[in-house]
Amino acid sequence: MADVALDDRGRLMLPKEIREKYGERYHIVPLSDGIKLVPIADDPLEALRDEFADGEKSAVEHREKGRNTALDEAGR
After folding, report:
1. Which of 35, 47, 42 is nearest to 4 (CA)?
2. How many domains does the chain have?
3. DSSP structure class, residue 31
4. Residue 31 confidence class, pLDDT cut points 50, 70, 90
């Protein structure tokens, strides 16, 4: 963990190790007790594909399972 401060122009400089690990673009999320920096991928769509590439089931299979579960809970 590193402590950083804003410079006189309001800029925040992240440590090199953080930039190398997470990149150089971030979305700022305001929270009730602070902020959160969320890294933005160079290619967000590709990042999503990579994140879910190892999914075992297709969207159709998930939809069918959800439908069957809902019907069972409703007393099919």
Report:
1. 35
2. 2
3. E
4. very high
